[in-house]
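Appendix B. Chain record.
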Amino acid sequence: MKALVYHRPGKKSWDDKPQPVILKPTDAIIKITKTTICGTDLHILKGDVADVTEGRILGHEGVGIVEKTGDAVTNFKKGDRVLISCITACAKCVYCKKGMYSHCVDGGWILGHLIDGTQAEFVRIPYADSSLYPIPEGSDEDALVMLSDILPTGFECGVLNGKVQPGSTVAIVGAGPIGLAALLTAQFYSPSAIIMIDSNENRLSIALQFGATHTTNYEQENSVQKIMELTENTGVDTAIEAVGVPASFALCQSIIAPGGTIANIGVHGKSVELHLEQLWSHNITITTRLVDTVTTPLLLKTISSKKVDAKKLITHYFSLNDIISAYDTFERAASTKALKIILNNDL
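Structure tokens predicted for this chain:
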């Protein structure tokens, strides 16, 4: 089969690789029909995720068709159309029983990280019964690809951890796909204001279309000052960090109101400075989280009922065989205006 292979920081290629095989009775082999590229994949290629080793097939999102199942798989059979979760869950360990699937003792975020991932024609999914979801008849599978990772990530790590409430004020630093996913799902709770912060005018324009009440371009104006003006000089109740660089985390610390919550989503490859000298007396909560995908069933119902239009996050379509060009487009998002890219495996 063909697969996108990581070699070292800055080096990837579309290579011939052996098709995956069943290794454990709980495994399933999935023929990928649609996958995508994540900002985390770019962090891996920059060298920010050191435990990704040479030869790893990247990718942790997608939908596909069950090709083969291990003897212990009971929920799925050959030919079933399935959504692949970015998080692998055994459903039996102490962390899974707490709903912390991301810390499953034999799973978690392993696809495209510690085992081969979904940017390939086939992928092996461990613990298939608890790591795959059946696709409802008539569903838009392009939209469902957004459910593998970015929608539950934005919702769980940003909105839920950020304690977004009716009437509250929210700032989201970063109007990329994850920030926009947080924007879409924050509206479940009817905050009074959602302020998007970025330097890309196209993405800020999209954020307004998606439901942001205000935007600010930190390269063109003093965003801290603007947010203080918008919030009667108190700051926001929730600041969501959706970039993963020191400057964006510092900005969150500058705009958070007393009693507020800073919810980190971004993948950080460098240390950040924590300004406790400013925050210690302000009753600030700082949360971190790796997505657990515990909200995937809820979000699946929400998308199926068309309460959230996840498909509008998609800007580009490529053949899976053209994945190198797709990466180039995604890496140059500022000029290509790319958000999420769908890669179709031509069957």
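Further analysis of this model is presented in Appendix C.
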